[in-house]
Amino acid sequence: MERKTLLALTLLTLIAESVNADTASAAGNDDSAQAAAATAGEALALGKVTLGLRARSELVEIDGADTVDLSSLRTRLTYESASFQGLSALIEMDDVTHLSEFEGGVTDPQGTEVNRASLSYSAGGTTIRYGRQRILLDNQRFVGGVGFRQNEQTYDGISITNSSLTNTRLFLAHIDNVNRIFGEDSPLGDHKSDSYLLNANYSGFSAGSVSAYAYLLDNRSAPAFSTDTYGLRFEGATGAASYALEYATQSAAAENPASYDADYRLLEGGYKLGTVTLKTGYEQLGADGSSGQFITPLATLHKFQGWNDKFLGGGSGNIPGGIEDIYAVVGTSLAGVKISLNYHQLSSEEPAVSGMDKLGSEYGVVIGGKIASIDLSLKYSNFTADEFSSDTTKWWLTALANF
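Predicted structure:
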């Protein structure tokens, strides 16, 4: 608790000083002091309404089990007001309707709920947002929105973003509740929280950008997800080459019944040859013997360790003994159609703990393009089990239109 308090007070003080400086600067500039709307009523009248429709069919085939399929439609209606004296409002409603019989096995629950609802205040380089909001940090390995699923993960709380310093972005949030992808009617749908997220990014290096972060999670609904995570991420590109390095350390926190210290490591390199992009990497989610393992309960887990979602670990993003992932990705674009292929070889980081060495391998392909104003994609994933889980194939056909 002392670390959380110190973290919050320190950054809030820095941002308050930045707000004062920004306000003073804006006061001396007639143009920057002008609001987008002259009155609150005008700000509401000038607001923008958007409608998004996303239809999807998903097919799941697991060796030894019945085939499961689900077709669904997500309707998203968003209203965002114009700005009045730095203030603006946003509300977004999502409805997910099943177009075929729901047999389980697909995490796209049916229902209607508020996806986002927030008030924002912006002054100079600082934005304060209160309410239900989307939070996507770095590559979403630790904090994300799971945007692939029909029901997005969002966060209730207050966040402060500051970009007053050159090439620098500071982000601080206090989270009261995590609205998970299972929907508000599910007992797994909400996780009460008293958590802090801090991410500081500096992009002033010619070789790339650096992020330093501290994610202090106190999950009141699932104490086993309570952790303190500190890390550094560097990513960039030079010519045709791209690269990323990341290290983080984690320990159990708050009321977590476990007691452990574990590490995260990432090494990734890429190269572009004409229209073809090649990328390979090594990712390790470590373990501390049988005491515990490095977990990422707020991550967009579908992006990592293969699209088959075999290693969700009950929402923790890891399994006992940890995971090592060696992967390769090839992507290109042909006549406006994007094609990406990936391969993952997954092993246990501590076989003595998991009782397994080779967990399995997976390859996948996604093809995406646009017809008129509709985005279409076909996605396929094939997991071959070695010592973990069962052989599984998944297909997704998705159509998206925004108005």
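Summary: Helices lie at 2-27, 30-33, 40-45, 351-354.
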